[in-house]
């Protein structure tokens, strides 16, 4: 059984494309192309299920068409419309820290280097503005800049940061 903490969301499936089972896939993270992944995890009726990919082809920087194994008709592909798409953290760990996507950091704990205290856990990433922010579960916002990050431990799922004095009091 695939657990929610073992995956992270990278996009959503759109409409069926053509009659041979392809479906459009709108993604925020192209990790499935950077890592040798054979499958994606779809949330179907609340259950995380692996779907093996036969092939995919990019239409833009954030859209591709995917053909999943055993999905061979337009009606089968249409049944997947609207499914959230996740990627296994274990496969994403094969990336170098330089290749890691921000989305893969959801669920990591932020540690302040000044006192080694856990500041909070990343709930989501706000990339709507020029300054990307880690949104923590406690509501705090932390700038997600390379200048502040000291280290990332993918095994321990922690990020040590050199946080500016006074940031935590805001």
Brief overview:
This protein is mainly beta and 170 residues long. Helix content is 8%, strand content 45%.
Q: Can you give a write-up of this model?
A:
- The chain is mainly beta and 170 residues long.
- Helix content is 8%, strand content 45%.
- The chain is built from three helices and twelve strands; from the N terminus they run ββαβββαβαββββββ.
- The chain has helices spanning 31-34, 74-78, 89-92, and strands at residues 7-17, 22-27, 39-44, 47-58, 63-68, 84-88, 109-112, 117-126, 133-136, 141-143, 149-153, 158-161.
- The protein has a six-stranded antiparallel barrel. Strands 10-9-8-7-12-11 form a six-stranded mixed sheet, with no helix packed on it.
- Strand 9 and strand 10 form a beta hairpin.
- The longest helix has 5 residues, at 74-78.
- The relative contact order is 0.17.
Describe this protein with a few key phrases:
3 helices, 45% strand, six-stranded antiparallel β-barrel, six-stranded mixed beta sheet, 170 residues, 8% helix, mainly beta
Strand content range: 35-45%
Number of strands: 12
Structural class designation? mainly beta
Oligomeric form: single chain
Give me the strand/helix succession.
EEHEEEHEHEEEEEE
The pLDDT mean sits at 88
What's the helix count?
A: 3
Q: What spatial order of strands do you see in the largest sheet?
A: 1-2-5-4-3-6
- Runs in which pLDDT lies below 50 for 5 or more consecutive residues are none
Tell me the span between the first and last alpha carbons: 41 Å
